[in-house]
Amino acid sequence: MVLYHDACFTGMITRHCDAILSNGIAWNLTDDVMYFVDSLKRCIFRYEYNKEDGSISDQQLFMDYGSKCPELGLPDGMCLDVKGRLWVVGFGVHKVTCWNLQTREKVMDVDVPLAKNVTSCCFGGPNYEWMFLTSGTSFLSEEDLKKYPNNGSLFVIKNLGTRGLPPNTFNLGDSHI
Predict the structure, then answer these.
(1) Is 0.90 surpassed by the pTM of this model?
(2) Between 175 and 32, the higher pLDDT residue
(3) What residues act catalytically?
(4) Which of 23, 45, 119, 163 is the most exposed place for a label (fewest CB within 10 A)?
């Protein structure tokens, strides 16, 4: 897999990085920085983002889960809260982790004891106060499938002390999505 960019859908394709397993994507609160997960590289990358033309530049490593925090599993889906913190699920380890984007420090881990393979997260519910988590059964042994029968389910976490943001929209030519 490769991360590409087509500026304003002009057909001018720019190649940005070779991704092994591309997953989560999120933007900071001012929409000028984009975060991108490559799960198998166990990395979250940071890019400068131009919201006028959708271009990205200046790839930087935001977090290397392999060397800095292997206990957090494979980074997978992610989302932002109203405080500008990045929430990243850890595939294979029952967790979602909250990161401070400025300091790159871990704010907290939230355990998801009923699912080993948490796959993605988003905020929803009343005022975006609930975090929804998806989970999967891929790569689980028969023993794990018995131990965690709720893998493959949708979970909700309430009372995180924060809220999420409304969904992003974008323009595709004459239509608004």
Answers:
(1) no
(2) 32
(3) 76
(4) 163
